[in-house]
Amino acid sequence: MNFHPIGAAYFSMEIALEASLPTYAGGLGILAGDTLRSAADMGLPMAGVTLLHRKGYFEQHLDARGNQSETPSIWGPEKVLQPLDARSSIVIEGHTIAIRAWQYTVRGYSGHTVPVYLLDTALPENPPFFQTLTDHLYGGDDYYRLCQEVVLGIGGIAMLRQLGHHHLMTYHMNEGHAALLALALLEEHVAGRSLAESSEEEIAFVRRKCVFTTHTPVPAGHDQFSNGLVRRILGDERTAALQRTGCLGGKVLNMTDLALRFSHYINGVAMQHGEVSRGMFPEYSIRAITNGVHAGTWASPPFQELYDRHIPEWRRDNLYFRYAIGIPLKEIRDAHVLAKTALIAEVARATGVQLDANVLTLGFARRATAYKRADLLFSDLERLRSIARNVGPLRIIYGGKAHPRDEAGKEQIRHVFAAMAALKDTIPSVYVENYDMRWASLITSGVDLWINTPERPHEASGTSGMKAALNGVPSFSVPDGWWLEGHVEGATGWDIGREEIPETEADEIAALYHKLEKIIVPLFYGRPDACAEMMRLSIALNGSFFNTQRMLSQYVLDAYFEGKSAMPVEHAVIERRRSGAA
Ligand SMILES: *Cc1c(COP(=O)(O)O)cnc(C)c1O
After folding, report:
1. How far apart, in Å, do the first and last CA atoms of the chain sit?
2. Residue 572: which pLDDT band, with cuts at 50, 70 and 90?
3. Most C-beta atoms within 10 A of its C-beta, which of 90, 346, 527, 532?
């Protein structure tokens, strides 16, 4: 094993490492993967910690009416990951549970590496139930989930130590699932004394090391566990410590509270989400660092080739996307035609439906869950039909999985299926099964317009529109999340009703159809140069900012080493550059 000292450990319940590894469910995991890919590009001394998810998230099956069923997504970790000899352990309800780790190595564009440790409890010495703890991402009941969070937070810290990573400057909790790491750090710091006697200085010591990113303004997105369950799983002493630090005030342990209390830097994932989070947690100082996407992962092959020709520095320095403003429109259009052709071919292969490449194609794909309102576009089928008949033809491509227990999300998929069936003679459309990184890459780059219709202000950031922008695809979106920052009307896309300040959903729907009918469809068919100009502006204005390289630079500047000497890390980076690049 290559041993590199690390300065920051990034803990996340899900990390999208590769399209073929089912270790992620959606945007949170994609963000985690993109963050670590940028860390490798930037030569940062970082490591990732997550669970193995031996049975993945799930494979989605959709019947003719859009009823979703699920099967486990079995993969062979031993085929792709490197087994590590180190063992750590945790105690749950008096059982000592052994943990092993597998390593995935993220390689940056010029060879720097960032290790990701995937924790695994499937060891023969563990009691059978506990062998399954690292099987299912977001599976099981509250008991299973809290055990998983113990493995991630407490087991993760123990594993880092076993692997020789001792004096880190920063532990980054990507969402509250990892919050128990703070308790592990406190235990380590009080070194054998009772947690209940930990002093304010000792808590402050842990706080200086922790950074917390909260990801959702939807209360159901914040994990909560009953006090009884917490006591049962964590034991009396840890429970008393949680009580003493004020994390167990009511009847539940809210993992977000725990993370907030133990972090010196807390942020939301877009400007507006910072504000919304300050409203939710007024007693904390909450900043914002807007999410991004990893350019090398999400620029489609034709665009990578285009960028290599015109702005060869883009892989090292994403700010050069600003110079996309100098790329001839024709070449942008040509690259888009190639990306669209690749998408249409893949759709035909997967669904048997052959879409027409000359027709304006709309895309919508993300987790199917109520606030994302996947079916908003289909609110008035007669109106859509009339636009397609009288203004210009349309095609629509959808994708997205609902969590197995999210009935409202599943209902949305059925709605979309029913609408697509009703429209099929005028607007041939498809809903692709098993939306994953590969489909995300094809769809965000291959459609002509990216649709986003969340219920305000529930979209913390959203990242798929950023993937689209990097491929010159403008967005047509409700002004929520990242789009409040990325939107320039008529330049990078269009708002769904900011000027009108819609009071009701009906107003939003009216705004959506109005712009589609009067502005977007006529522009697409009547003014191809204006369209290509918007594609170019999407890349230059939004690709240059909404990437994980800019995002991670902000974490480094504002959070990871804030208030500490940045010297050791800068030094480490320079050393790595010298040795790695040579
Ligand atoms: C990017 C991505 C997401 C996140 O999409 P949002 O628009 O941010 O909700 C979800 N799933 C997959 C597979 C993705 O690639």
Report:
1. 20
2. very low
3. 90
